[in-house]
Specification:
By secondary structure, the protein is an all-alpha fold. The protein has helices at residues 16-43, 47-93, 95-108, 113-135, 147-171, 177-200, 204-229. It contains seven helices and no strands.
């Protein structure tokens, strides 16, 4: 009997939960605080005012990102939990109907009905709940909602991203804050977009340009408003 050979494959889907939250947090941190710094500096280049506004934006933004991400992903997790309980009840009360349902799913995917029923029966015998969650509802362990992980990743990445424009604003002369923050923000957004695309297996140039475009647009808008009205803008 010939032994089957298996080759190891590395896929990206198990990264979706934390990658989405981390990229969103870092992007929002860079863009929002850099825009805040640029807007305030365009109005009044006083370093203390710029740093105070930036620190306030960092603290408020990190907490807001964590809370928003937790609530959003928690809602998804609650929905998945409710579906799990419902499926457990249906498996207890109507196992034959669930077998028919799973068989129909496999028939739609291309198996002949006798083979589809045989596959469904064997999989249900081994782990009926996991099989139905995966093939009927699309719920898998890799893609399951993890609210705390998403909240922590989002808050931490926001703080890291937001720290960049603040560090630049502290190091350069007051009159160069707008230019220096704008330039370094563009570089950071290009880097962030490229890294996130590479991590997720997407096109690096496309990911970098997509992230950078909206960041530059936000900074330009706040700089114009700050320059026109001479007020602190967030």
């Amino acid at each position: 009997m010939t032994r089957a050979r298996f080759h190891q494959e590395f896929h990206k889907t198990d990264r979706i939960g934390w990658l989405r939250a981390a990229v969103l947090g870092a992007n929002d941190g860079i863009v929002s605080v850099a825009s805040l710094v640029v807007g305030v500096a365009s109005s009044s280049p006083d370093r203390n005012s710029v740093l105070l506004a930036g620190l306030a934006g960092l603290a408020a933004g990190a907490m807001s990102m964590a809370a928003g991400e937790y609530v959003s992903v928690r809602s998804q997790a609650d929905t998945e939990g409710a579906d799990r309980k419902r499926e457990e009840q249906e498996l207890r009360e109507n196992p034959d109907g669930e077998l028919d349902e799973l068989t129909f799913i496999y028939v739609k995917r291309g198996l002949d009905e006798p083979l589809a029923r045989q596959v469904a029966a064997q999989l249900m015998e081994r782990d009926a709940l996991t099989t139905h969650l995966r093939d009927e509802l699309g719920i898998t362990e890799q893609l399951a909602a993890r609210p705390i992980q998403a909240a922590v990743a989002s808050a931490n990445s926001f703080a890291v991203g937001a720290g960049m424009p603040l560090i630049v604003a502290m190091l350069v002369a007051e009159k160069w804050i707008v230019v220096a923050v704008g330039f370094t923000t563009v570089l950071c957004l290009l880097l962030l977009g490229g890294i996130s695309a590479w991590t997720g297996g997407a096109s690096i140039p496309r990911g970098a340009m997509r992230v950078t475009f909206w960041g530059v647009a936000a900074m330009a808008m706040t700089a114009i408003i700050g320059w026109m009205f001479g007020v602190s803008v967030g």
